[in-house]
Design a protein that fits this description.
Largest sheet: 5 strands, antiparallel
Oligomer: single chain
CATH architecture of the largest domain: 2-Layer Sandwich
Number of domains: 5
Strand order of the largest sheet: 2-1-5-4-3
């Protein structure tokens, strides 16, 4: 008997006793009263009393039974109503949670809480099916007194012992699984002890499905066995379906938000992209263009949307680009290409473009034009190719310079000596002059070739370009026809740069000479201008190798025939010339380019056929400086009588240089084998006052010979001569100084320079020895 049933039974029993008591009193009173009133005998009275008492007893028992049945019926109805109300409240709360909560984990946690606190169950949890090798079940939400039950569960949905529990069976089969008694159910053996310890007696597992596939399970435990009837199971399955739908809705909403975020990010990327993007319809009407497209093509976004693409300059001025767009619209075939476009201000820019249709389920919805400005990239590629060509020329020049300079040195020195000996009126003197001029021209040509990639390092000083420009124009005026007008415009108050004046003069003359040649025969205007240029970081696209800063801009403009793109791409190539044969070597602009680069500057050129050419040169500006003091050009040759040891592996060169030095009074001992020369010096080290040696020789290089000689005579002056390129490692000044070499001369050595250097070193040597320096003049 339960605590609730005892009072109910006591009430029924009390009513039956009261009924029997009242009936007995009525029988007793009524029997005596009717006996007296009716004057009946005592026997009749006794018979009636017994029957009455039996009726009272029977009716009292019947009344107790009826009252008890009626009471149980009412109790059952009340319990059913209570369960129904609890179920309805659970359904209502779950429905509210599904419609109110937007976080998946929070929703499942709330559903578990409702089943425990509203539904009256002991424990509820939700597990998702894992797709790992173990097919584990991952608990994602729970509510109730689990006492670490979840942590030690280790359930799986594989078909194994730990996979035949409620959750594993439900996920594997996709159906509701009920365990009415954990104590007796054989499949619950792995968790029985822990479940009974926690007070769990029975459980039900409801599938959570998406597209007829169970992705998880809602598991509910009760503290009583046999509590899940068909009606309760049906209500729970409806709740599980609602929960599945809620989770699916949240998944869809999360996917929608993720897709929206991705679209926003994609739109942001497109907006911020450096590549231009434009979309049009089949009529060419613009739907969208990003800022990069507007900037590249100089289009205003607001004015462009809704208008035809063919009305804008990037299509109107480029028929090929416009044709390719129309071709893609008509054919639906993707087009990739390179195009040279023009802006309305006449400036050109080069793009790589891809034009393609955008397909949807209903066919082509849009056409997208993607462009990338490659103007700077092509400029860098051109500069790279130019650098590679210069490197190849440098390698070539290094290979031929030594031998060729030795040959020229022999020709020049012997021609000079013959001219010194020949009288001015001699008939053969003109031939000697021609030989000497050809040798000097060859010397200049070799020097230009060697200076193509890296011009010779020269002494830099503050140079004002304006006077140099005036000097160049004065020289040109005398040689140009009167049909060419020369103009100069100086807009800069500071035309000072750090440079070698001779090389800057060479650059200006080369540029002006080429400009004049472009107008030869037809006349025109040659203009040189100087102006200040402040190069900003965003303006360095035209001169990508220059850092931002203050520059002096030199422009040489002509109104000549101009150049085609093919010619323009090669003007700085060594040995390339558009002139007639015999009219140019093709080295002028190459040398100028190398000089400008070595001075930290840059040069660019713009030209069109029939519209002339503009060369723009930038030099870093410096503060105003002092003009250099010109050395006297006519210096007397210094004579001497010292002893010189001369070595070179070219026999003809040795013979000519020996004769040149002996003409000045020097005593020259010469040789062609560096080993024998070293042996001679080792045997008589005090017999020589100066060593002149070639660098590139078999057996011992000039540097190695100098080191060995200086170990014996550290005070001996040494001059190193070489026909190699100026930037060769063999002529590295630091390395030469470390070896004790006093001077380096480049072949073919100018005789005046040789005489001065020899006399200077011998005088220094005398001063170091404390001797008086005496010399005579020729």
């Amino acid at each position: 008997m339960t605590a609730e049933a005892a009072p109910e039974r006591f009430t029924c029993f009390a009513i039956a006793i009261a009924y029997a008591s009242l009936g007995g009193m009525w029988i007793f009173i009524s029997d005596n009263l009717f006996t007296i009133l009716l004057n009946q005998t005592e026997a009749n009275h006794h018979s009636v009393a017994i029957s009455h008492w039996m009726f009272i007893a029977f009716s009292a028992i019947l009344l107790f039974w009826l009252l008890r049945v009626w009471q149980l019926a009412i109790s059952y109805s009340q319990q059913s109503l209570k369960n129904a109300n609890r179920a309805l409240k659970s359904v209502s709360e779950c429905t509210k949670a599904i419609t109110r909560i937007t976080d998946e984990r929070e929703l499942m946690q709330e559903i578990c809480k409702i089943f425990v606190e509203v539904g009256g169950y002991r424990f509820a949890w939700v597990g998702f099916a894992g797709h790992d090798a173990e097919k584990s079940i991952r608990p994602v939400a729970y509510w109730g007194f689990e006492e670490n039950f979840i942590d030690s569960m280790n359930a799986t949905w594989r078909d194994c012992e730990r996979g035949r529990g409620p959750a594993g069976t439900t996920i594997r089969t996709g159906k509701t699984t009920t365990f009415q008694n954990f104590r007796t159910h054989p499949d619950y053996r792995p968790w029985r002890e822990q479940a009974l310890k926690c007070g769990y007696a029975s459980g039900i597992s409801l599938p959570l499905k998406e597209e007829e596939r169970a992705f998880g399970a809602l598991v509910i435990f009760s503290g009583q066995p046999q509590v899940f009837d068909d009606e309760e199971i049906a209500r729970m399955e409806e709740l599980a379906e609602d929960l599945s739908f809620g989770i699916k809705t949240l998944h869809m909403e999360a996917e929608r938000k993720r897709a929206l975020e991705e679209r926003i990010q994609l739109a942001t990327v497109i907006e911020q992209s450096t590549e231009g993007v434009l979309t049009i319809n089949e009529d060419g009407r613009i739907h969208y263009l990003n800022p990069a497209f507007a900037k590249i093509c100089s289009v205003e976004t607001i004015k462009a949307v809704g208008k035809s693409i063919y009305d804008f300059d990037f299509c109107r001025l480029n028929k090929l680009f416009s044709f390719e767009i129309q071709k893609v619209i008509f054919s639906g075939i993707v087009c990739d290409g390179h195009f040279v476009n023009r802006r309305n201000d006449g400036s050109s820019y080069e793009i790589n473009a891809k034009i393609s249709p955008v397909y949807t389920q209903n066919g082509v919805s849009r056409y997208v034009v993607m462009i990338r400005d490659v103007t700077n990239e092509l400029l860098l590629e051109q500069q790279l190719r130019q650098a590679q060509k210069m490197e190849a020329i440098a390698t070539l020049s290094g290979g031929i310079a030594h031998d060729f300079n030795n040959i020229l040195a022999v020709i020049i020195s012997n021609a000079e000596m013959f001219l010194e000996d020949y009288p001015a009126a001699a008939p053969d003197r003109q031939c000697l002059d021609i030989i000497l001029k050809a040798g000097v021209r060859g010397k200049t040509l070799v020097k230009q070739i060697m200076n193509l990639s890296q011009p010779a390092v020269s002494k830099r000083e503050s140079v004002e370009i304006a006077p140099v420009v005036k000097e160049c124009l004065a020289l040109l005026r005398a040689s140009l026809p009167t049909t060419i007008e020369l103009r100069q415009q100086f807009f800069s108050d500071n035309s000072w740069i750090a440079a070698d004046p001779t090389q800057i003069h060479q650059v200006i003359m080369n540029l002006c000479t080429n400009a004049a040649d472009a107008m030869h025969g037809g006349g025109g205007i040659l203009e040189i201008s100087l102006s200040d240029a402040q190069l900003k970081a965003e303006d360095t696209y035209q001169f990508p190798n220059l850092p931002p800063g203050a520059y002096l801009e030199l422009k040489v403009t002509d109104s000549g025939h101009g150049m085609a793109r093919e010619t323009l791409a090669r003007i700085f190539d060594p040995f390339f010339t558009s002139k007639k044969p015999g009219k140019g070597t093709g080295l002028g602009l190459s040398v100028a380019h190398g000089i400008i680069k070595s001075h930290g500057g840059a040069v660019s050129v713009t030209s069109e056929p029939g519209k002339g050419t503009v060369f723009t040169v930038l030099f870093p500006q410096v503060n105003k400086g002092e003009q250099r003091q010109q050395e006297p050009l006519n210096q007397e040759l210094l004579r001497g009588e010292e002893r010189i040891l001369f070595v070179d592996d070219e026999e003809d060169y040795v013979r000519s240089q020996k004769r040149l030095l002996e003409r000045l009074g020097y005593q020259v001992t010469a040789g062609t084998d560096s080993r024998k020369v070293l042996e001679l010096f080792q045997s008589h080290p005090e017999d020589f006052d100066l060593l002149i040696t070639d660098q590139t020789m078999p057996h011992l290089t000039g540097e190695a010979l100098a080191r060995k000689v200086l170990r014996i005579r550290p005070d001996l002056p040494v001059i190193l001569c070489s026909g190699s390129a100026p930037d060769s490692i063999d002529l590295n000044p630091e390395r030469a100084r470390a070896a004790g070499i006093r001077a380096i001369l480049q072949k073919p050595v100018d005789k005046h320079e040789l005489y001065k250097k020899v006399r200077h070193l011998l005088n220094d040597s005398r001063r170091l020895r404390g001797e008086h320096a005496e010399y005579s003049y020729s």
